């Protein structure tokens, strides 16, 4: 299984990767590799996680100038693609229409010996790509909803294509799972079990969303505004123990509260404070399951001075009070 990425205009091979077979065995069933790139064209970091039937890549890259690269692969794969930041455009010989991702969009791609060109602009990109062996993926493709018939037909014909012509918005729950996979601290077999379960959970959220949500058809926002909205989201994620008004958040990134309110909903599919509450509760849930902190301590860590108010918010989110988790850990 090989992937080659090169810049024909410069006569440069950017990289060539040799992946293990889908069903290769690893020590403890998992292998993690990290690499750094700093060339005349780009700089960035990559983390790869290999499991039987699953290959996960986290990429953080900055291209120093706009570039068009060519790629080719000699294997068959299902890719759960999450464009976390930045945008790109791919043209392939296997798929008739261009594939363009903007920040905060996801889709599922079937690639069978896919090749083509990819346009990268000069900006920062962050992606999460989860490649799954088709035989592994097909076990979890429901046959109870017509929306899946098109993709199942592509698989049966060996014809590359997208699950949906229109991408969907990455939800806060998806971001949380991606974060848990990337920063999982478990070791060996337990790490493999945890990541496998999270990949299936993430696939579940994708497939559910394809049956219910309306497509993400593109944004009316300017790139400068999108960058400011990402800055607000990053601030929220790193300041779960604090609070701020909509106006204070807007002024922090140099915009106004109207654009923040409207743009955040358009870009992330939820309100500013709906997102903030979701990530607070997700962190609280993880901490409760770890069992290292008291409920009062966790409440303080996610911005609640009153443990009772925290318990009410937690029950509204998960249907149970924190003590029910704490008592069983």
TrEMBL record:
<dbReference type="InterPro" id="IPR053142">
    <property type="entry name" value="PchR_regulatory_protein"/>
</dbReference>
<dbReference type="Pfam" id="PF12833">
    <property type="entry name" value="HTH_18"/>
</dbReference>
<protein>
    <submittedName>
        <fullName>Helix-turn-helix domain-containing protein</fullName>
    </submittedName>
</protein>
<feature type="domain" description="HTH araC/xylS-type">
    <location>
        <begin position="230"/>
        <end position="328"/>
    </location>
</feature>
<keyword id="KW-0804">Transcription</keyword>
<dbReference type="InterPro" id="IPR009057">
    <property type="entry name" value="Homeodomain-like_sf"/>
</dbReference>
<dbReference type="InterPro" id="IPR020449">
    <property type="entry name" value="Tscrpt_reg_AraC-type_HTH"/>
</dbReference>
<keyword id="KW-0238">DNA-binding</keyword>
<dbReference type="InterPro" id="IPR018060">
    <property type="entry name" value="HTH_AraC"/>
</dbReference>
<dbReference type="GO" id="GO:0043565">
    <property type="term" value="F:sequence-specific DNA binding"/>
</dbReference>
<dbReference type="GO" id="GO:0003700">
    <property type="term" value="F:DNA-binding transcription factor activity"/>
</dbReference>
<keyword id="KW-0805">Transcription regulation</keyword>
